Amino acid sequence: MKGLSKSVIKKISKSKNEPDWMLEIRLKALEHYLKSNTPSWGVDLSSLKDSQIDFFIKPTKNKARNWEEVPSEMKQVYEDLKIPESERKFLAGVETQFDSNVVYGKIKKKWEDQGVIFTNTEDGLQKHPELFKKWFGRVVPYSDNKYAALNTACWSGGSFVYIPKGVKVELPLQAYFYIKTKSMGQFERTMIIADEGAEVHYVEGCSAPIYNSNSLHTGVIELIALENAKIRYTTVQNWSKNIFNLVTQRGLAFKNSRIEWVDCNIGSKSTMKYPSVILNGDNSSGEVLSISVADEGQWQDTGGKMTHVGKNTSSTITTKSICKNGGRTSYRGLIKIPKGAKNSKSKVVCDALILDNKSQTDTYPTNDISEISAYIEHEASVSKISEKQLFYSTSRGLTEEQSRGLLVAGFLEPVTKELPMEYAMEMNELIRMSMEGSVG
Predict the structure, then answer these.
(1) Over the stretch 317-353, which tens digit does the pLDDT of each residue have?
(2) Where is the SUF system FeS cluster assembly SufBD N-terminal domain (predicted)?
(3) Which of 124, 197, 410, 427 shows its CA 20 to 30 Å from the CA of 161?
(4) Is residue 332 part of a domain?
(5) For the purposes of burial, counting CB atoms within 10 Å of the CB of 100, is it exposed (0-12), middle (13-18) or buried (19 or more)?
(6) Per-residue pLDDT averaged across 398-425, rounded?
């Protein structure tokens, strides 16, 4: 369905057999999107045209629950990515979305028996309507920004996760998102709710083949960590260079809870993504660990945002960016501490590495502090790989290319060490290939 209109939104809602209240929200979001201005800050979005984007592709068959039921073309992508092997050896569950539709989903019986819900968002709406309606749009309302409105109007697929009180899922849940159709818009909507004392780690991977025309990925992720709960959300994004990646990620942390974002961005044409946490409850905490790599023709505008509301809250944002061959990276962050958020503590560290004289990096920090008892730290650095470092490495038998890759890996280590082993290995391999100029 190319182009965007009320009739397209109604077709999406009808195809999913949604309740009237969801269609009403979709239409309000569409109205907000159409009257909102395209952001004049951040990446250049002038070449992104609604009339050229497919906003929904109807599913051809029901989602597969067994590996044997997955279509062969999609199965090959899984095999290339080692997803079945990862599921068997390591993961608590897997959901995968191609274009608009989730095509494969499975969760290990151990977690199902404890009441864990891990399904696609459509099933979440149909099978758990009260829980879904309570939290949908509460953390990221459609009025938040232009592209949150677009997602709310067009959302299709994504993950719906609920972890019951006191349940701790020791192994990561995984989702994988893949755009296989050119000029496609993907609008997954993910919602994760960790009830009191629950813990979960969710890992997301993203990729797409390269086409001549632009595609659009506009996701919304809402995390809800109730009292004493913990959520970690990890993204490894390696979209191709024709993808506009415009994502809103936000968590709501209640008393004594913790939300962590581990965000790795290598691909895409342009990215705008700022994982954030609203520290609503006393003694809650939040953390953002972010990597951005920009090669020729790429602009990664990333960072993090923390809003302190409760007392004795704490937050940390650590970002590492690399630009080369004329690529551009930007750190854009916000620390907000209103009056009454007593004894709030926040630390921001943003480090940039420039690998040539053609690339560019920028820093746009905002600290909005109204509470006198708050304690804030902010530090930033911009550096290049020195000839002395390269000489030392090459004198130990490494080539200059290998030396650069090693130094880059060391620069990123504070973030990559927080990834699960399989993803850390994948991330390091992607970085190594990027240093060879073979990854976009």
Answers:
(1) 999 999 999 999 999 999 999 999 999 999 999 999 9
(2) 17-174
(3) 427
(4) no
(5) buried
(6) 74
Please identify which residue in the block is written with the tokens 């609604």.
Answer: 50
Of residues 205 and 251, which shows the higher confidence score? 251
Render pLDDT for 109-125 as a digit per residue (tens, 0 to 9).
Answer: 667 788 889 888 998 99
Which is nearest to 50 in space by CA: 63, 60, 36, 62? 36
Under DSSP, the state recorded for 52 is: G
Per the structure block, which two tokens stand in for 313? 């809250």
- Distance (Å, whole) CA 244 – CA 239: 9
Name the domain count of the chain.
Answer: 2
Helix (H) or strand (E) holding 150: helix 146-154
- The tokens for 303 are 């960072």
Contact 203, 86 (CB under 8 A): no
Q: Do 236 and 423 meet the contact criterion of CB atoms below 8 Å apart? A: yes
Structural domain range at position 416: 387-440
Contact status, residue 300 vs residue 335, Cβ threshold 8 Å: no
Percentage of the chain exceeding pLDDT 70:
77
Find the angle CA(19)-CA(25)-CA(27) to the nearest 5 degrees: 105
Q: What angle do CA 113, 252, 302 make, to 5 degrees?
A: 110
If asked whether residues 210 and 61 sit together in one domain, one would say yes
